[in-house]
Amino acid sequence: MSWPGDRRSRLQRRVEGFPWWSLTKSIGLLPLSSSHTIDYRMKVEQEYPLSSCEVGLVDFGRPQSLLIDMDGKEERSPNSPSIYNQRELDLVVRLLDRFPEDKTNDIMII
Length: 110
Known about the structure:
Structural class: alpha+beta
Strand content: 5-15%
Number of strands: 3
Number of helices: 3
Distance between the termini: 26 Å
Shape: elongated
Order of helices and strands: HEEHEH
Helix content: 25-40%
């Protein structure tokens, strides 16, 4: 399969050298490159929400998005189609707790 403009290697180059942060032994956070629009807004408005003193997940000047990596050893919940659903929710709650309460409305979770 061919990638337009060698998109795959560009993305790979963007994530090289980023360190891992651990919220627990089995959950890590890896900063990834964000879209051009977000990068432009950060440069113009100097907004680095994941780099703030309260959160401290990404170095200042780095793209402000995260990829969440979870291991696959969870049991399926009878109430959820996702084997990770409860763990994902717990992680999102812990992650949002790191932000000041007045900033959580500005966060997009995909």
